[in-house]
Amino acid sequence: MDATAANLLLDHHRDHARDLPWRMTPRDPYRTWLSEVMLQQTTVATVTPRFLRFVERWPTVEALAAAPDEEVLGEWAGLGYYARARNLIACACAVAARGGFPRTEGALRKLPGLGAYTAAAVAAIAFGEDAVAIDTNVERVAARVFGIGDRKAAGEAARGSFPAGRHGEFAEALMDLGASICRPKAPNCPACPIAAQCKARALGSPEAFPAPKVKRVRPHRYGIAWWARRGDEVWLVRRPGSGLLGGMAALPGPEWGEERPAANAIAIHRHGFTHFTLDLMVVPCAEPPPGEGWWQPVGELASAGLPTLYRRAVEAALEAEREPRLAA
DNA sequence: AACTCGGGGAC
DNA sequence: GTCCCAGAGTT
């Protein structure tokens, strides 16, 4: 993309930039960082209400660093990719301890949870450094503008297009274009300020770029969740601090496996993860299984910080208790 | 370079 | 159902 096209895009962005709650003037490094982490593999529509709740509860990185881990993980519950929340806590503590965010891409890159993209995005957007933030939007727009099928190659080709002194603004312009006009499906080329410069458009098939990802078959697994009741309470546990749903509140149960267990379930909840699907069988038991845990009032399950898998499984179990005939 | 790691919105 | 999303960390 030449300088003329970059200026056309920046001019368009001046009038069409999305009004997002983390885009205040001037940019707040804390909110920039928090939004970028929340937005990793997560849509703006999903993030926006969660971001607002989060900054309402913890308005500064110092406040976040001082919060108990369980409360932060609970606030993150339902957003997915929980390593982000664990790294968020570690990063907040490191930043608070050193008296604020580092202001360069290289120093930001050393913080937990900040990879190549996020370090560059925070450096460029919050601190005005000429760092190049290449996300999936930039890759897709570049793939079409340059007519390059390979996503990573397209992203690298976009590096030279970032105008000096305006890298943060340009990254946001590319991201807004990718979200609003140069969408994955049904791109709105007539509304695009750089359609005349677009190779994929000239070829007549913008949607053919970038090349589609190779998809893999998702295996299936089975699991048991113990349903231990005591009056109006249910027994919950905290999962180990790493791995799938690491550190999150959960129903107790053995590790999941390939074979369908023979168990008398009152409910079976099917859940889709990124790389497998799970049938979680909720099985009543008289006593809590051995190990750490706590009795959670069923009327206060919303504040327990359950990830979606267990939140849905609990809902199914409570429904089964009300209507036993519908048990699976 | 390939895998792991969630969940929801849009279609 | 499918595809995709302001990716990072591990192996």
From TrEMBL:
EC number(s) on file: 3.2.2.31
Top-rank EC class of the record's enzyme: hydrolase
Native species: Sphingomonas kaistensis
Gene Ontology molecular-function annotations: hydrolase activity, acting on glycosyl bonds
Protein name in the entry: Adenine DNA glycosylase
Keyword Transmembrane recorded: no
Manner of cofactor binding, per the entry note: Binds 1 [4Fe-4S] cluster.
Cofactors named for this entry: [4Fe-4S] cluster
UniProt similarity note: Belongs to the Nth/MutY family.
SUPFAM superfamilies, per database record: DNA-glycosylase, Nudix
SMART domains with a match to the protein in the record: ENDO3c
Segments forming domain HhH-GPD: 38-180
One Pfam family here: HhH-GPD
Keyword Hydrolase: yes
The protein's role, per its UniProt record: Adenine glycosylase active on G-A mispairs. MutY also corrects error-prone DNA synthesis past GO lesions which are due to the oxidatively damaged form of guanine: 7,8-dihydro-8-oxoguanine (8-oxo-dGTP).
Keywords: 4Fe-4S, DNA damage, DNA repair, Glycosidase, Hydrolase, Iron, Iron-sulfur, Metal-binding
Reactions mediated catalytically: Hydrolyzes free adenine bases from 7,8-dihydro-8-oxoguanine:adenine mismatched double-stranded DNA, leaving an apurinic site
